[in-house]
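Before any further analysis, backbone shapes were mapped to integers, which produced the following:

***
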Amino acid sequence: MNLLQYLLPDSDVLRIDEYELDQETKHLTLHVSSSQTAVQCPVCGCSTYRIHSHYERTLADLPYVDCRLTLLVQVSNSSAL
């Protein structure tokens, strides 16, 4: 298993697609996406497998041990039919 995967809360839910480490500026950027195949509709609670759109969220954290971390999270919108 990739050592960087331990930075994520649950490897069954999120996966690291790629990463960039700028050693000069000590900045780590992780490109993360969901690995879930089904989610619950927030309105009716039914399970859905249909993804109708994607968008990216950027999360930045304070430096930790002289290294800045940015998470680029690919989020999927699902809908039940």
Summary: The radius of gyration is 15 Å. The chain has a mean pLDDT of 76. Residues 39 and 47 are 6 Å apart (CA to CA). Strands lie at 14-22, 27-34, 39-40, 47-48, 51-60, 68-78.
